[in-house]
Design goal:
By secondary structure, the protein is of the alpha+beta class. The chain has one domain (21-96): Nuclear Transport Factor 2, Chain: A (Roll), CATH 3.10.450. It contains two helices and four strands. It has helices spanning 2-16, 38-48; strands spanning 52-60, 67-75, 78-85, 91-96. The chain has a four-stranded antiparallel sheet, covered by helices on one side. Strand 2 and strand 3 form a beta hairpin.
């Protein structure tokens, strides 16, 4: 009985030492320069285009402040690109993706 308890405590201790998994996105290394967090940008994007986020990235791109979050949002049967300025939170793009996505 004591050996069983020690084994269980050892397992619990080992599991608690495992690193926690955090969701990474493309361009995460630029996040330190953004005033808007990825969570805030997700919320803004989904308010502009309700649906499910399929892709997300933080990128330097012309328009707005030059730093934006880009989200692929599946809404119904269509895929949309929603761009959110990483400094102001303004929606920069909310357009249906064509056949030739970039």
């Amino acid at each position: 009985m004591l050996q069983s308890l020690l084994r269980q405590l050892t397992i619990v201790g080992l599991v608690s030492m495992l690193p926690t998994v955090s969701f990474a996105y493309t361009g995460q290394d630029l996040a330190g320069t953004a005033k808007v967090t990825i969570d805030q940008a997700r919320s803004i994007a989904l308010q502009a285009r309700p649906g499910n986020i399929t892709t997300e990235e933080l990128e330097k791109e012309k328009g707005g402040s030059g730093l934006r979050y880009s989200f692929g949002v599946k809404s119904g049967n269509a895929l949309y690109e929603v761009g959110v300025d990483a400094q102001t939170g303004k929606v920069l793009e909310n357009s249906k993706e064509g056949k030739n996505r970039d």
